[in-house]
Amino acid sequence: MAIVRDLTGVAEQNPAIYPGQVTIQEEDPTVFETRFLRKIKDLGEGHFGMVELCQYDPLGDGRGELVAVKSLKPGSRGQLACHLRREIDTMRELYHHNIVKYKGVCSEDGGRSTKLIMEYLPAGSLKDYLPRRKHQTDLQRLLLYALQICQGMDYLGTQRFIHRDLAARNVLVDNESTVKIGDFGLTKSMKEDKSYYTVKERTDSPVFWYAPECLVDSKFYTASDVWSFGVTLYELMTYCETHCSPTTVFLEMLHPTQGKMILTRLVETLMAGKRLPCPPSCPDTVYSLMRRCWETDPENRIQFKELITEFELLLD
Ligand code: ADP
Ligand code: MG
């Protein structure tokens, strides 16, 4: 047996030695070719990239699989390309039930630009999904989503990653009983953080998801992700409705005048111990978990493992 195996090995490495044998060229299933990728529609746009629904149809019979393809917005190159590259490297290493699955990459312009190919989740992000499904989604279901986000985040922590942009817009819905974390690795350097603070359209500014240490020192810990999870939990409990979104409520609390004032006032407000209010019809037990995510000192915050235990108890 050992000899047969050894000979097979030799044949694979040196196909020319055995001319009679047909060698099957193993294709790398994570390499997608541009020419077979057909755009169907836009799925969304974030700070750096855009995501499109495409069909990958190498056989040309219109039955190829649907995939979500992330690329940089036109015109953005250089440093931003680096972020997408890093996001690809991150996603490639992650494998968890509650994390969007990496499928591969697609190189263009002779390798000068790369697109990220992911599994396609037709229901979109929680932010798209929840407001429409309010009446079909009860408290138990919201807590199940919260539990799954914590399970994905706990795994991420064990893999020594910090997400840095956890928010309902970055959690995707697989089916009505499964959500997955997406949008990885767009690491925010200090310079980009500043551009966030001065953003003109404030609607999706991530500052309202950031912990004080991120706002003040640009330091991110796993505990900073816990803070952002608390804000995401708030979004879940408000069914991601815009009129009571973190952005809307914080802006009402701050009465800011200019872009730069927002950040200063937000830090003052948080340091004074003020927090997002308990959403209507959110049980005290759930609000108290949010508050434990929003301890000023990162060391005092609840951890994802403990959150998992708490949500499991609530779901029992
Ligand atoms: P950005 O880094 O630009 O914020 P995201 O990865 O958050 O990019 O994607 C932006 C939006 O595109 C998401 O909020 C979601 O609506 C949509 N989207 C992203 N990935 C997928 C996917 N795999 N399936 C379906 N929709 C997706
Ligand atoms: Mg995003």
UniProtKB/TrEMBL annotation:
Active site: D165
Protein kinase domain location: 37-314
Residues involved in ATP binding: L43, G44, E45, G46, H47, F48, G49, M50, V51, K70
Family label: Belongs to the protein kinase superfamily. Tyr protein kinase family. JAK subfamily.
Protein name: Tyrosine-protein kinase
Region of the whole protein represented: 831 to 1146 of 1155
